[in-house]
Design a protein that fits this description.
- Helix content is 3%, strand content 36%.
- It contains four helices and 40 strands.
Length: 575
């Protein structure tokens, strides 16, 4: 808590517990951002997609890589001299079960340790000064399709991680481990019996009402929940006053909705859990019976704003399904739900009538319902595509402007479900996809400023490709983001006017950070094209339907960038 209050540091992947991705540093302003220059750079020595971002603690920066998940400690007093390097020995057979590139979203710090969740689901605690392994535990089983891609979060005496593998029929979970020795303290599943999901039928609520007994089991056919997905590979937020940790769950398995009738609770759900006990206080399922792979794992941003003249403790979530949700984070009350890309067409709206039997649910357009159209039928023109109006790339919030800055995808798809059988450790997808820009559009992304109180876009900057990097807002009035072609861009927080751009050696899917060292403000970002949008480049795929449909949509990215993992650090000139 003390370390994150000092903006010189970046001691967690979300920068602060509230996930605002806001830096209180203000040396870089709209007036001088155009003078930014590269201070130094560092090659990670690894190809494939570099998601997440570095940590900074005092004079040391900690940098991670995709598989094999190397961690470097770099000396900020010596332009990134390597202090130590940790390189785990992992079975390369884990690579084929990482659905959307071999990414890792970052490391976390706590109690003198650096925590890494490896691809093979090993949770490792490294001594922050030496890089030596303090302890290591296995959280999952890659043989069953479980992998680790998400960044841990440290709260008090616990470190929390989730699991990836929804495309392999993994039953999702979120778990807490002891910072001291790696002992598992609790594990909450996303779907299944109340006890295992750690929900109380009478006390856990959705939209103000108790969820009732066996809420998840009743929403699945037979034992389908046992391979039901709902994985937890996104970001986590924490409110110290409420002692609640917030995260989202992913798509139900399989992608063929006809094989899993029902709402498939609690996939596609925002969970608010007691950080100590793991018990769920409230839930909200955004996309019941998901038919489009609209994972609900995107970050929850905690902000305090006034709505209708009343101060509210808000949770703002930009979902893959194309709707931006504003909720009361104390009790889960739904306040706003609006499309944050006009192209979104699979639902007309989210029902906001509290007296309606479909209150809080999206009103699905039959034409774009893959379940209603049926198996072996190609449903065309669905917007957004499966990778969503935004995927895991985190948005930012500025308490100065009161706006949210959102990297988005402007992409539609064709989706054809088919019958698929489950085999442990094998893909369990059951759909063929293709992706492309919306009709009449040439751009596949936008970077937008969003008013979460009104549910409206304030300004929007078109980008040729999806904006797959995390945004950063700063007190200086400058917002940073990266592009798939490799540009780091700085824009005016109020107007969106571009102030600076620099093309890094590879496409950027990393998250921008800012830190202070020696009295000067720095900006840093990992480049290294990949992730779902860049999987064709990263894995050398050419079939347009490969990469779960992304390869064809992003084929022209090959003309703009190439593979390579690099950290690039920027600052203003000394005078």
């Amino acid at each position: 808590m003390k370390l994150q209050a000092n903006p010189a540091n970046v001691i967690m992947p979300t920068i602060t517990y509230d996930n605002q991705r806001y830096s209180a540093l203000d040396q870089i302003t709209p007036e001088n951002a155009g003078r930014l220059q590269v201070a130094w750079s560092f090659s990670t020595g690894v190809l494939r997609g570099h998601e997440g971002g570095p940590l900074v603690l005092g004079d040391v920066m900690y940098v991670h890589t995709p598989f094999p998940n190397i961690v470097y400690a770099l000396d900020l007093n010596n332009d990134g001299k390597i202090l130590w390097k940790y390189e785990p020995k992992q079975d390369p057979n884990v690579i084929p079960i990482m659905c959307c590139d071999t990414v890792n979203r970052g490391v976390a710090y706590g109690d003198g340790k650096i925590f890494l969740h490896q691809a093979d689901t090993g949770l490792v605690a490294l001594d922050a000064k030496t890089g030596k392994v303090a302890w290591s535990v296995k959280t999952g089983d890659p043989g069953q399709g479980e992998t680790g891609t998400s960044a841990p979060i440290v709260i008090k005496d616990k470190v929390y991680v989730g699991v990836s593998g929804g495309e392999f029929g993994v039953r999702g979970w979120f778990a807490a481990y002891s910072v001291a020795d790696g002992r598992q303290v609790w594990r909450a599943f996303s779907v299944g019996p109340d006890k295992e999901v750690m929900i109380d039928p009478q006390k856990t609520t959705q939209l103000g009402k108790p969820i009732g007994a066996d809420s998840s089991l009743k929403s699945w056919e037979g034992d389908q929940w046992k391979i039901g997905g709902g994985t937890t590979w996104g970001w986590h937020a924490y409110d110290p006053e409420l002692n609640l940790i917030y995260y989202g769950t992913g798509n139900p398995s399989t992608w063929n909705p006809r094989q899993r009738p029902g709402d498939n609770k609690w996939s596609m759900t925002i969970f608010a859990r007691d950080a100590d006990t793991g018990m769920a206080k409230w839930v909200y399922q955004m996309t019941p019976h998901d038919e489009w792979d609209f994972d609900g794992v995107n970050e929850m941003i905690l902000a305090d704003q006034e709505i209708n003249g009343r101060p509210r403790k808000l949770l703002v979530h930009f979902d893959r399904n194309g709707f931006a949700y504003t909720l009361d984070r104390i009790n889960g009350e739904l306040l706003v739900a609006e499309k944050y890309d006009p192209a979104v067409n699979w639902a007309t709206k989210v029902d906001m009538d509290r007296n309606s039997p479909t209150y809080g649910r999206p009103l699905v357009v039959p034409k774009y319902s893959t379940a209603q159209n049926g198996e072996d039928t190609n449903t065309t023109g669905i917007c957004p595509a499966a990778l969503g109006t935004k995927d895991q790339q985190p948005a930012a919030y500025s308490p100065v402007t009161g706006l949210f800055y959102v990297p988005t995808n402007h992409v539609c798809m064709d989706y054809e479900p088919f019958r698929v059988a489950y085999t442990a450790g094998q893909p369990y997808v059951g759909a063929t996809l293709s992706m492309y820009p919306p009709p009449g559009s040439s751009n596949m992304g936008n970077f937008i400023a969003w008013d979460a109180r009104a549910g409206k876009i304030v300004w929007s900057l078109p980008e040729p490709f999806s904006v797959w990097s995390g945004a950063l807002a700063t007190k200086g009035g400058v917002v940073f983001y990266g592009t798939l072609e490799g540009y780091l861009k700085a824009v005016d927080a109020s107007t969106g006017k571009e102030l600076y751009r620099f093309k890094t050696p590879s496409g950027i899917i990393g998250n921008v950070i800012s830190y202070e060292h020696g009295g000067r403000q720095y900006v840093a970002v990992l480049s290294g094209v990949g992730g779902w949008a860049g999987i064709g480049l990263a894995a050398g795929l050419t079939d347009p339907h490969a990469g779960l449909g992304a390869v064809g949509g992003y084929a022209s990215l090959n003309n703009f960038t190439a593979l390579g993992g690099t950290l690039t650090v920027f600052r203003l000139p000394a005078n």
